[in-house]
């Protein structure tokens, strides 16, 4: 396989934003957008309530010998807080919307491959697939949590505050790629383990795509549409880079 450059991964997400408004696709993107909006409002309320507590905790845990780096550490700390909030928002949105995102990926694939003769998933089929879709998200969570905990430990080590934020950012990019490429792959019953192996073979393309999603998720209002756009973009990326039957 040819390794794609990370910069090219931006094209897939941008095309994803275009795809979700296409006739025959936009109605499948509507529910994920509504879920995004409701969770965004709820988590925004929680974040505003606990933000002062986070600031107080951070001030009490800066070592004396690092006080001279206080402005830099503040920037790094706020970056970590934003990334954690971004990931929390994204995870819960994907957990709730998992069955609908799988259906969206199916419709985008049908649109891109012109398989108009394929029968769309029925409502009954969507209900039957819901436990498997949610289970797949929980499998993803079991992959994420131990690694996220390790980065948290690094952050709590004196001096670790310097390297933990970039590690967290790169890790989030990787897990975002796993999160969204999982939808088209799961539709074709590609196991989570095999999916990881395939993404590692296309490491630059996968990481570039995931980092692009992270950056767009941090943009207010735009982040309400990132989830369906990322599903659509990931579907195209899968068809181009990972599927044996290329577009």
Topology at a glance:
Elements: H1 9-19, H2 26-60, H3 70-113, H4 123-156, H5 164-187, H6 192-201, H7 203-217, H8 223-242
Helix pairs in contact: 1-7, 1-8, 2-3, 2-8, 3-4, 3-5, 3-8, 4-5, 5-6, 5-7, 5-8, 7-8
Description:
The protein starts with 8 loop residues before the first helix and ends in a 5-residue tail after the last helix. Helices cover 78% and strands 0% of the residues. It has helices spanning 9-19, 26-60, 70-113, 123-156, 164-187, 192-201, 203-217, 223-242. The protein is mostly helical and 247 residues long. The protein contains eight helices and no strands. It has one domain (6-61, 70-242). It is globular.
Count of individual domains: 1
Strand percentage lies at under 5%
Indicate the percent of residues in helices: over 70%
Number of extended strands: 0
Rough shape?
A: globular
Question: What structural class do you assign from the helix and strand content?
Answer: mainly alpha
Q: Are there runs of 5+ residues with pLDDT below 50, and where?
A: none
User: What Rg, in angstroms, do the CA atoms define?
Assistant: 19 Å
Tally the helices: what do you get? 8
Indicate the mean pLDDT: 79
Sheet with the most strands? none
Distance between the termini: 14 Å
Output the helix-strand order: HHHHHHHH
In brief, what are we looking at here?
The protein has 247 residues and is mainly α. It is built from eight helices and no strands. It has one domain (6-61, 70-242).
């Amino acid at each position: 396989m040819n390794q794609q450059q990370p910069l090219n991964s931006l094209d897939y997400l941008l095309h994803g934003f275009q795809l979700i408004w296409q006739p025959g696709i936009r109605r499948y993107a509507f529910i994920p957008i509504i879920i995004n909006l409701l969770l965004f409002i709820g988590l925004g309320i929680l974040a505003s309530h606990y933000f002062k507590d986070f600031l107080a905790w951070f001030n009490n845990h800066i070592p004396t010998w690092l006080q001279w780096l206080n402005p830099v550490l503040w920037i790094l700390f706020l970056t970590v807080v934003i990334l954690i909030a971004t990931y929390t928002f994204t995870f819960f949105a994907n957990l709730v919307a998992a069955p609908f995102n799988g259906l969206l990926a199916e419709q985008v694939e049908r649109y891109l491959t012109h398989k108009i003769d394929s029968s769309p998933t029925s409502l009954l089929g969507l209900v039957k697939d819901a436990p498997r879709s949610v289970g797949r998200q929980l499998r993803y969570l079991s992959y994420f949590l131990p690694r996220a905990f390790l980065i948290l430990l690094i952050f709590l080590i004196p001096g670790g505050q310097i390297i933990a934020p970039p590690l967290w950012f790169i890790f989030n990019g990787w897990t975002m790629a796993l999160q969204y490429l999982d939808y088209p792959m799961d539709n074709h019953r590609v196991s989570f383990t095999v999916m990881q192996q395939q993404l590692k073979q296309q490491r630059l393309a996968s990481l570039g795509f995931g980092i692009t999603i992270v950056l767009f998720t941090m943009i207010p209002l735009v982040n309400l549409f990132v989830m369906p756009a990322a599903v659509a973009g990931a579907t195209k990326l899968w068809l181009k880079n990972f599927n044996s039957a290329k577009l």
